[in-house]
């Protein structure tokens, strides 16, 4: 409906958008009253686009389509009524809707090095100030970037685009009637950056060298496809291509090396746009053969009248190649001679030594074997007698299933009843399916805890579990338990559980905490990825995903945290779901700059001030102008919702002093004031 102004109510006026209808009306006391309309002091008899109507006691002035010529002060006179009001024509900046949709819905894509031009035509009351911003900062001309502004369009030109030009851009068009903002996204594609270094040497032996690196910090805007690995022998100029790895693999092993030779390695990343520069390693030497280091002293597991079982751990230093087995030696306590137990290396790290003499005390040591030969021997074990243990262990107590799902079972139990609980050296857990009679050990070494989770089980299958205690004399009595696995949960495609608690737009005060919880459901558990403006989140953002909820936490919000946040859910079946929301970080505006006063029209004063620094990051900033007529008088608002940086005050009385103050405002509050230093006065003119 058209904006209306009822003159009888003594309203100051009505603001109308250009092109919209408007209506002024006045109610008189008698029907036979003939009214007259005036505009800017002149009697109106006819005017383009203006219609006069009378309905009973109501006299109307109707404008079907408001233009600039219709702005002004209107007065109605009829009978004993004489009243007036004003029409202010607002003509804010406007951009074609089709062009606006194309610019905001689809990113502008360019390849690195290409010229980028984004032109935005506009309409509206002049002058229109156009401003381009990136990351909340106004763009200024330099050797590559130029902003051209005319009375009909604004255009951003980038002579040679680079990856750093990617991001969110904002175009702000502003005049006396209002402000329009356009959000754009620019994506520049390029070859990747070099892989992140340094190149680490994971293993260097006589036969092969394994290197490792990190993915590049910037993939160029396109997914990586692969890595290319090359090698150069020290002293030669040629680089030899060794092979490629998929994008998910950042290690490479080559056997194209010779003993005691030195090499350089380099790695390049490849995407659809090209190949990156190379990341080069320091000098790497293919070492000669080296035997393993000494393991720790072996431990005695159990004893009997003619045998002793020992176990050990692999040495910390494996030498120049992998360990192929172990040599075990024995000796009687008190003697110096070590005798071999096995002639061929054993691959297991546990061995039962038989044919011992009952009642004698023995010591044992172990040496690892690789391609270079037998390594250093360990220290001797604790002495052990070859005799039956006098302490036999009974079964564990209270064996039960504490929890289970479709693929695992957690068992718990209590120690067996013994005269001394320290006799128990550990526990052994075994499992077998109901379709087999063969038991399988779940661990290679004894368990120290009285709980264990068996994983990798099949859904809806029945299994048998047994647990037995261990001490120096060997395994104790076993106890069994039967358990049926749950059915696998149904496959649920990932989706977000969005309700009224999840908002699509958040307004955050700078310095406050940003905490956003997004609930979802999916089975199996999805991979959750957070993005900001299409890129991975910065380091100050903490992400936690647990029990069907993923949380974003930023302890102290900064202006750079404003933007579009996107959560991606993707499961192993290829199903993908996304959800996005906007975050705007703002703050109470900073004060406007200094004020100066001008008399552009006689008997008026124009208040002009420097813009608040907050205009760079606050899109909904406006100004309020106040005045007082003495140094200690009350401040009164004379102008509000001002989107530019000047205001003209007309109701001046000659001979009085006027002080002015300007404050900047947004949705969070008002800034401190900026005030005039000296008063403004229009001198009285004395009569003749």
From TrEMBL:
Keywords of this entry: Immunoglobulin domain, Repeat
InterPro entries: FN3_dom, FN3_sf, Ig-like_dom, Ig-like_dom_sf, Ig-like_fold, Ig_I-set, Ig_sub, Striated_Muscle_Regulatory
Residue ranges occupied by any Ig-like domain in the UniProt entry: 3-74, 494-586
Domain Fibronectin type-III: start-end pairs: 194-290, 294-389, 395-490, 591-685
Presence of the UniProt keyword Ion transport in the record: no
GO biological process entries: sarcomere organization
PROSITE patterns in UniProt: FN3, IG_LIKE
A GO CC term attached to the entry: M band
Gene3D superfamilies: Immunoglobulins
PANTHER family reported in the protein's UniProt record: IMMUNOGLOBULIN-LIKE AND FIBRONECTIN TYPE III DOMAIN-CONTAINING PROTEIN 1, TITIN
Protein name, UniProt field: IGFN1 protein
């Amino acid at each position: 409906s058209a904006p209306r102004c009822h003159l009888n109510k003594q309203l100051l006026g009505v603001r109308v958008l250009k092109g919209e209808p408007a209506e002024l009306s006045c109610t008189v006391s008698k029907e036979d009253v003939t009214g007259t309309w005036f505009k800017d002091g002149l009697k109106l008899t006819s005017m383009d686009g203006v219609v006069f109507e009378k309905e009973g006691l109501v006299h109307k002035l109707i404008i079907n389509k408001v233009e600039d010529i219709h702005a002004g002060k209107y007065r109605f006179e009829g009978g004993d009524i004489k009243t007036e009001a004003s029409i202010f024509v607002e003509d804010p900046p406007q951009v074609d809707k089709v062009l606006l949709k194309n610019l905001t819905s689809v990113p502008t894509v360019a390849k690195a090095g290409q010229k980028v031009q984004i032109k935005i035509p506009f309409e509206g009351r002049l002058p229109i100030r156009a401003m381009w911003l990136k990351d909340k900062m106004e763009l200024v001309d330099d050797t590559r970037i130029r902003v051209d502004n005319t009375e009909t369009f604004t255009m951003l030109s980038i002579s040679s685009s680079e990856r750093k030009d990617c991001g969110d851009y904002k175009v702000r068009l502003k005049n006396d009637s209002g402000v329009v903002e356009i959000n754009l996204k620019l994506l520049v594609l390029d070859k990747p950056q070099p892989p992140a270094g340094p190149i680490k040497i994971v293993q260097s032996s006589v036969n092969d060298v394994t290197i490792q690196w990190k993915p590049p910090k910037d993939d160029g805007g396109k997914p990586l496809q692969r890595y290319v690995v090359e090698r150069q022998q020290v002293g030669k100029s040629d680089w030899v291509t060794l092979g490629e790895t998929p994008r998910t693999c950042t290690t490479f092993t080559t056997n194209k090396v010779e003993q005691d030779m030195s090499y350089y390695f380099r790695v390049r990343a490849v995407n659809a746009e090209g190949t990156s520069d190379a990341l080069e390693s320091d000098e790497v030497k293919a070492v000669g053969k080296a035997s393993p280091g000494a393991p720790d002293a072996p431990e005695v597991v159990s004893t009997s009248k003619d045998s002793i079982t020992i176990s050990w751990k692999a040495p910390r230093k494996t030498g120049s190649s992998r360990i192929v087995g172990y040599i075990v030696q024995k000796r009687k306590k008190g003697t110096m001679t070590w005798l071999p137990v096995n002639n061929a290396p054993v691959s297991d790290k546990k061995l039962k030594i038989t044919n011992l003499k009952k009642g004698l005390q023995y010591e044992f040591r172990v040496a690892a074997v690789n391609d270079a030969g037998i390594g250093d021997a360990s220290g001797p074990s604790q002495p052990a007698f070859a005799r039956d243990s006098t302490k036999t262990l009974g079964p564990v107590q209270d064996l039960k299933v504490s929890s289970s799902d479709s693929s695992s079972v957690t068992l718990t139990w209590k120690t067996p009843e013994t005269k001394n609980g320290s006799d128990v050296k550990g526990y052994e857990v075994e499992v077998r399916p109901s379709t087999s009679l063969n038991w399988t050990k779940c661990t290679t070494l004894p368990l120290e805890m009285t709980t264990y989770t068996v994983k990798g089980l099949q859904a809806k299958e029945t299994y048998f579990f047994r647990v037995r205690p261990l001490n120096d004399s060997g395994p104790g009595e076993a106890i069994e338990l039967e358990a049926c696995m749950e059915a696998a949960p149904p496959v649920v495609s990932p989706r977000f559980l969005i309700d009224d608690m999840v908002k699509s737009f958040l307004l955050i005060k700078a310095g406050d905490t940003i905490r956003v919880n997004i609930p979802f459901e999916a089975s199996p558990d999805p991979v959750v990825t957070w993005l900001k403006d299409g890129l991975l989140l910065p380091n100050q953002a903490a992400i936690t995903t647990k029990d069907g909820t993923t949380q974003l936490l930023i302890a102290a919000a900064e202006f750079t945290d404003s933007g579009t946040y996107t959560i991606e859910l993707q499961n192993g079946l290829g199903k993908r779901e996304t959800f996005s929301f906007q975050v705007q970080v703002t703050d109470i505006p900073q004060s406007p700059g200094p004020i100066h006063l001008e008399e552009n029209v006689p008997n008026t004063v124009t208040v002009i001030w420097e813009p608040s620094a907050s205009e760079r990051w606050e899109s909904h900033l406006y100004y309020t102008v106040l005045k007082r007529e003495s140094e200690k008088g009350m401040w009164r608002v004379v102008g509000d919702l001002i989107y530019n940086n000047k205001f003209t005050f007309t109701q001046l009385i000659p001979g009085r002093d006027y002080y002015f103050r300007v404050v900047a405002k947004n949705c969070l509050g008002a800034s401190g004031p900026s005030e005039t230093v000296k008063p403004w006065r229009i001198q009285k003119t004395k009569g003749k």
